[in-house]
Automatic annotation (TrEMBL):
The keyword Transcription does not apply. The chain crosses the membrane at residues 7-27, 39-62, 83-105, 111-135, 147-163, 169-189, 210-228, 248-272, 292-315, 321-339, 351-373, 379-396, 408-430, 436-453. This is Polysaccharide biosynthesis protein. Pfam families: Polysacc_synt. One of its GO terms (cellular component) is plasma membrane. Keywords: Cell membrane, Membrane, Transmembrane, Transmembrane helix. It is found in: Cell membrane.
Amino acid sequence: MTPKKILSFALGPVGGALLGFVSLPIITWFFSQEDIGRIAMLNVVVGFCTLLFSLGLDQAYVREFHEVSNKPALFKASFSPGLTLLIFSLCVLLSFDNAISLWLFEVDSKLLSLLVALAVLCAFMSRFLSLILRMNEQGFAYSMSQLLPKLLLIIIILGYVLFSVNKNITNLVIANVAAILLVFFIYALNTRKEWIAGLKEKLDPSQLKGLLSFGMPLIFGSLAFWGLTASDKILLKELSNYEQLGIYSVAVSFAAAATIIQSVFSTVWVPVVYKWAAANENLDKIFKVNRYVLLVVIILFCLAGILSAIVTFILPDSYKAVQWILVPCLGYPLLYTLSETSVVGLGITRRTGFSMLASVIAFGVNLLGNVWLIPKHGAIGAAISTCFSFWIFFILRTEFSIYFWKAIPRLGMYIYTTLLVLGSVIHALYANSLQNYFTLYWCLILMSLFFFFKDEIFESKSFIKNKISGMKS
């Protein structure tokens, strides 16, 4: 993948995050915390259904894409089983009066149930259509499908404000579903040749059987990882209230800016590292990349700890707790990204089942942590539990990779991540009364980098200086 294509794919996550920073404060000023919490539950359900009903066939499609000549037939075989099962399941659920809206939102509404069903259906179809764009390296079209819905959401919310439309859960769901619909229509338009050709193909039972045999085992690992990232929100709803869920979801949304790094890094890193491994060369660069990613992770954690109070200037007073929850919420995207550099051995040795085991164990830890901490601390407890669980996830992936492949220098990595997680947990619990001490704590960690990462800092400085000189010349 060329730098230009990488940039075209990165445009979507980066632009989407920027638009998210615009839309999020607007929503918090005009909608209640409870309604924002309800929207968080909508996103959880959409993500779960897309994952479950894909049956692992989305990953099977990616795996087989370059191996088959009849790509429309491959798409139909990958897409049809999950779609059929999803439509049947939605019909069954909709037949139980308003069970969907009652469980998700605690609101008895047929309209909301229908909107949720529509959102789930469109998100599922969008998932598979997006794979066509990704595999054909149509990065710009892929990015536009992420940017335009965020822009539409902002326009609809501003329209509510300008025209004094009721700021209730129904209208907020309508705005979000409209954005999901737009994603689907953009994907459908940009991939119309492929899916229309797929409709004309006959379903090959032998091909479907092969795809299912590859995809089905992957569901368990995917569901475990989904549980690791979503159990906090579900248990906040069940063990606390929508108000705490709303505060937590806002903090998670701000922390999601770090997923830009995760998304772009994963897009570039995975193909490159397997290329190095296949040629049995540049393996020393894997260790160097690990050091650089650790350096970035430490800097971002520390900056968040020092500057998190800034969010109070753009959010209503009722969201004051977001500034303390934000730091541990970075645990998911940043520790996951770091683990991608230390888990490569499992991919190289084809021991990916142990990566799934790491997800299962970390999910169990998160489940127990949430059950213990949420009743006592609400959103803060959920943030602490998830951050700690991703630290366990990171350590397990690293140790499994070392066991099956080769050792990597990790003492410094473990010391720093321990300091980051410990600081994040205490920050969330006590920063309200000890803010100045925590600012000093994060500053001291930053200062230590000039000693422990002096080579990386010097190399980065030289690289930037040479690039600037090259541009001037």
